[in-house]
Design brief:
208 residues; 60% strand; single chain; mainly beta
């Protein structure tokens, strides 16, 4: 009686990666039952959706092993046929952006009402005449000033709020008595906003 060793055939391994990250597999060919290790790194702004293997008409799910050196590691057991490993990513979002005017005196404009994570957003404040921006900020993100009354921020991984407060501009007010003097003049305030009443009091010297 003689036994003959049956050689196991190697099959091809194909890797297909969607937009949103990178992935590698440790073997290009493998035999039935061998482990295929897939390392996955999503691009910032994307989330890994699934790691699956397609063999004929059947689907095999990858087993999650954890993180290693910043990559997510999966294991797939090689079937007895060629296999295609599919790695899918999803872009994070879109998330809503809501403007709030906490103190009146102008308008607040956003370049987007909804945006994906890390998408650049432009914020423009338009003060009314006689007003200026007192304060502006986001609930989560950090604003970067581009120029007067214009800011940008990168969309976070959740909905965002932009809050602005306007304030009336106080313009300096002064009075000067020209020489030759003949009395005194005074104001009831040294600064006023548009539309505010300023009272001027003049007191002539004796003989004037």
């Amino acid at each position: 009686l003689e036994f003959v060793k049956i050689e196991t055939k190697s099959h091809n391994v194909k890797l297909t990666v969607s937009t949103g990250g990178m992935a590698t597999v440790d073997q290009k060919t493998a035999k039935k039952g061998e482990s295929l290790f897939v390392e996955v790194i999503p691009t910032p702004g994307y989330t890994l959706t699934s790691v699956r293997a397609k063999s004929g008409g059947s689907w095999l799910e990858g087993y999650y092993l954890g993180k290693e050196c910043g990559a997510e590691l999966y294991e797939i057991f090689m079937p007895d046929s060629d296999v295609e490993i599919l790695v899918d990513f999803t872009r994070n979002g879109p998330y809503t952006i809501t403007p709030y005017i906490d103190a009146p005196g102008g308008q607040l404009e956003l370049s987007h009402e909804r945006a994906y994570e890390l998408e650049p957003i432009t914020v423009t404040a338009r003060p009314d005449r006689g007003y200026q921006v007192a304060s502006i900020g986001c609930y989560h993100a950090q604003l970067t000033k581009v120029r007067e009354n214009v800011w940008t921020f990168a969309m976070p991984k959740f909905k965002e709020e932009v809050h602005v407060r306007f304030e009336a501009i106080v313009y300096p007010v002064s009075v000067t008595v020209e020489a030759p003097a003949g009395g005194t003049a005074s104001l009831d305030m040294d600064g006023a906003t548009i539309g505010q009443t300023v009272t001027l009091t003049c007191v002539p010297d004796e003989g004037y």
